[in-house]
Write a structure and sequence with these properties.
With about 475 residues, the protein is α/β, with parallel strands linked by helices. The protein is built from 15 helices and eleven strands. The relative contact order is 0.13.
Length: about 475
């Protein structure tokens, strides 16, 4: 049996029944990584000795009936989350070789449930990008496992690829403007951005603090619910964490959607949508109707401003957050004759082109004389975008749309056109601006055989209805269980 093909739930059952051991499962995963990693390139750092030691401990706990929810299950972690025993580079030369002195809260929660951490996976540098091509380690840019030579999506491309290619059972990523949902859609896995404040950001290296959120990428909806159950909850170390009870997400996986109103935002099905994406997502909407949902049309009138708002707010916050990388306390330090030259050379050498571009945009937007015209105005329009969602959710229970305007495209096809890359986020960034939860679930395939996901969004802290809708779609779409041939 190819153990790397198991879902989290399937592996749980086999471990509980003593059909397999955590050691055998981890060995199978490491063998799979050795087999395909040279092709898909998901991992930035792999830690087999740590993983095997954790698997041995997991088997002891399982034998005593003391294992946690994820006992013995091998996972990967996006390299933007602090890990005390593994490097955390954020895909940047600025933090090459850096090992944090502590674990992120979500990492602590995984370890508390006895998960096995295999290693850290690739990402766009400091989570800035939509294709994972901005990773500073160019030999570690992930390939889409469904079609080599095509982008995996970003910035959590390594997380999506490691799950889709069977190099782990599940992964954690981060989502600032679609960085979980977009690669999940392009790689044919499930990915969730929780409500802002639902999952602790403590130990998540900051890109844009009012937008960032940690979430899971998994093989199916039930696994996503399990991972969310593990990482959600209040954390006093994160001032933006909300003290709110975490419901049972698995209990939401019920057949049928009678009485649920599904809103279709007309602005999300506009000109520029690839015909295959339009076809697959509309077929998915019909499946939700067949499950009993009522389909209604809604409007999000300020959608056209989302990209402009996001690419002022996110770079402005990035400019502030990345000011700490100055060569003084940790990370890269360039040799120089003076302090100001050391600052200048460290940041010039340590940051890649896209990070520098966003720092420049953000610093300009925050500068004296321009703050009111740019950052303040963007924040005001952000409020209007949030109000759009509030009005929409008064008319429906959830919103359904494509995740990206197109399926995956060829690597390097858009690298010379940053604006085209920014526009690929047009359908996902609004959820971050509004702070609402969003989920991408595989819905079908393009004519070229590339995965296409459906995006489902709900009101704040209403993740349960997302899981219900995603589970009903998954049961009807006929996509679950399909894996890329590598």
């Amino acid at each position: 049996m190819d153990l790397h093909t198991l879902t989290l739930r399937q592996a749980q059952e086999k471990l509980a029944a003593r059909e397999i051991t955590a050691v055998a499962l981890t060995e199978s995963m490491l063998a799979r990584i050795e087999q395909v990693e040279g092709t898909v390139r998901a991992y930035l750092s792999l830690h087999p000795d740590q993983a095997m030691a954790a698997a041995e401990q997991a088997d002891k706990k399982l034998a005593q009936g003391q294992g946690g929810m994820l006992c013995g299950l091998p996972l990967s972690i996006k390299d933007v989350l602090c890990t005390a025993t593994m490097p955390t580079t954020c895909g940047s030369k600025m933090l090459e070789g850096f090992i944090p002195p502590y674990n992120a809260t979500v990492v602590e929660k995984l370890l508390a449930e006895d998960a096995v951490l295999l290693g850290k996976v690739s990402m766009d540098e400091f989570a800035m990008g939509s294709t994972n091509e901005n990773c500073a380690y160019k030999d570690k840019i992930p390939q889409n496992p469904w079609k080599l030579g095509y982008v995996a999506g970003g910035s959590s491309g390594g997380s999506a690829v490691s799950v889709a290619a069977g190099e782990c059972l599940a992964s954690l990523g981060s989502d600032t403007g679609g960085s979980i949902r977009q690669p999940a859609s392009l790689c044919g896995v499930v990915g969730m951005k929780p409500t802002y404040g639902r999952v602790s950001r403590y130990g998540l290296v900051a890109f844009a603090s009012s937008l960032d959120q940690v979430g899971p990428l998994t093989k199916d909806v039930a696994d996503c619910a399990l991972m969310m159950q593990t990482i959600a909850g209040h954390d006093q170390r994160d001032s933006t964490s909300v003290k709110r009870e975490v419901p049972s997400y698995s209990a939401a996986l019920q057949d049928g959607m009678k009485g649920i109103r599904v809103g279709i935002p007309r602005e999300y099905f506009s000109e520029g949508l690839h015909p295959d994406v339009d076809r697959v997502v509309r077929a998915g909407i019909d499946m939700l109707r067949d499950a009993g949902a009522e389909i209604v049309e809604v409007s999000l009138p300020h959608t056209e401003y989302c990209v402009a708002v996001y690419y002022l707010i996110a770079p402005a916050e990035a400019s502030s957050n990345l000011a700490r990388y100055d060569g003084v306390r940790y990370g890269k330090r360039a040799d120089a004759d003076s302090l100001i030259d050391m600052y200048r050379q460290t940041r010039s050498q340590g940051f890649g082109d896209e990070v520098k571009r966003r720092i420049l945009i953000g610093t300009y937007a925050l500068s004296a004389g321009y703050y009111d015209a740019y950052y303040k105005k963007a924040s005001q329009v952000r409020t209007l975008i949030r109000d759009d969602f509030a009005k929409a959710f008064a008319a429906c229970d959830l919103l359904v749309s494509p995740v990206t305007p197109t399926p995956a495209w060829q690597i390097a096809q858009k690298t010379d056109d940053p604006l085209a890359l920014y526009l690929s986020d047009i359908l996902t960034i609004s959820a971050n601006l509004a702070g609402i939860p969003g989920l991408s679930v595989p819905c079908g395939f393009s004519a070229e055989g590339l995965p296409i996901g459906m995006q489902i969004q709900a009101a704040h802290f209403n993740e349960e209805i997302l899981f219900q809708a995603a589970w009903n779609l998954e049961q009807r779409a006929g996509v679950k269980g399909k894996v890329p041939e590598l």
